Amino acid sequence: MHSSVPLIEKYSEFLPVSSGTPVISLGEGFTPLVAATALPAKLGFPGLHLYFKLEGLNPTGSFKDRGMTLAISKAKEAGARAVICASTGNTSASAAAFSAKAGLTCYVLLPAGHVALGKLAQALLYGARVIAVDGNFDCALDLVRSLAEDLNLTVVNSINPFRLEGQKTAAFEIVEQLGKAPDYLFIPVGNAGNISAYWRGFKLFADLGKAGNTPAMCGFEAEGAAAIVAGRPLSHPETVATAIRIGNPASWQEAVRAADESGGSIDSVTDEEILSAYAQIARSEGIFCEPASAASLAGLIKHLKAGKLKGDATVVCVLTGNGLKDPNSALSVCQVQLETVEARPDKLREAMNLQ
Ligand SMILES: *Cc1c(COP(=O)(O)O)cnc(C)c1O
After folding, report:
1. 311 three-state secondary structure
2. Is the CB of 92 under 6 A from ligand 1?
């Protein structure tokens, strides 16, 4: 019988675990790296080697599972009382699932009204104690930090050091899948943990001689939530890409270092650019990601237009989450009113515009 190896076991030599660590796994990681076949030519760069890392195929539908398997395993090892997180949605879905598997209680603080429906549904069904807070993500995270300290709860937001350690495994996989590191990595930036984690992973594999080079790390915030680009925290971040609607990124400094050291940058894309890329990924490549994920392709398009890339570069865009989490965004982009047609061939041919 075939069964997948837990991510923690596959990469144990690079992770802070021992033989005594209980491994809480849901089959995370080992996500496909799919070559784009139509987009390079459509974008006017037919020689571009473009790949999408499909992190939405993780067990709860986002890359958060890579860090959560480790954070929850370590919480279990330490005999945690319960775990807690603030979340724009995907962290809570992941924390709730791994906590259920571990038999731990999970508390979730969500910014009221700004969480995609699928993510809320997940956290609730996995049995987390979900509380909507009258404030944005940054406010919820501040509350989590103080409550956790007072009540002795384990925080599983990306300020938990095990989260980024687990997330760096995505960089290992890309190197193994391509047989080398790409020239560029394009990635959305919210709390800026993921770009920091990828950089740790690429650097480590380069140091060990497992990758010839390291990629330029190109991170993209949403323009209405672009604190790093602005150089100061924002108290009212706004964007349709709710997963990156963050005004004071927790891993700010490490992300800036990743961009600088790698020869990349942190830039921003507008909501319009994000939604356009979101539709293009679906229509040209058959991939349904969530809006925040499309910030990676939107960023690539922006850099291509600005002449910042060589036309034959190898590029990976990280698609961080599954589009099914946020059906409302897809429906609002499509703006189609479904009309019911009489069940007769002639009427259907008329509706299909085929004679
Ligand atoms: C969490 C998340 C991000 C942002 O990642 P950070 O590590 O916070 O920068 C982007 N996209 C999706 C789908 C996410 O869930």
Report:
1. coil
2. no
| One-letter amino acid for residue 198 of the chain | Y
**Alpha-carbon Rg of the chain, whole angstroms?**
20
Strand partners, 53: 33, 318
Three-state DSSP class for residue 84: strand
Query: Which pLDDT tens digits describe the chain residue by residue (355 residues)?
Result: 556 899 999 999 999 999 999 999 999 999 999 999 999 999 999 999 999 999 999 999 999 999 999 999 999 999 999 999 999 899 999 999 999 999 999 999 998 888 888 999 999 999 999 999 999 888 999 999 999 999 999 999 999 999 999 999 999 999 999 999 999 999 999 999 999 999 999 999 999 999 889 999 999 999 999 999 999 999 999 999 999 999 999 999 999 999 999 999 999 999 999 999 999 999 999 999 999 999 999 999 999 999 999 999 999 999 999 999 999 999 999 988 888 999 999 999 999 999 8
Q: Does residue 193 have its Cβ closer than 6 Å to ligand 1?
A: yes
CA end-to-end distance (rounded Å), the chain: 51
Neighbouring C-beta atoms of residue 153, cutoff 10 Å: 20
d(CA 255, CA 220): 11
Strand ranges inside the chain, DSSP E:
33-35, 49-54, 83-86, 106-111, 129-133, 154-155, 184-188, 216-222, 265-269, 314-319
268, 274 in Cβ contact below 8 A? no
Angle at 87 between CA 81 and CA 90, to 5 degrees: 100
Ligand 1 lined by 271 (C-beta under 6 Å): no
Length of the chain: 355
d(CA 243, CA 251): 15
Ligand 1 binding pocket includes 292 (Cβ within 6 Å)? yes
Rounded distance between C-alpha atoms, residue 157 and residue 150, angstroms: 17
Nearest-atom number in ligand 1 for the CA of 90 is: 15
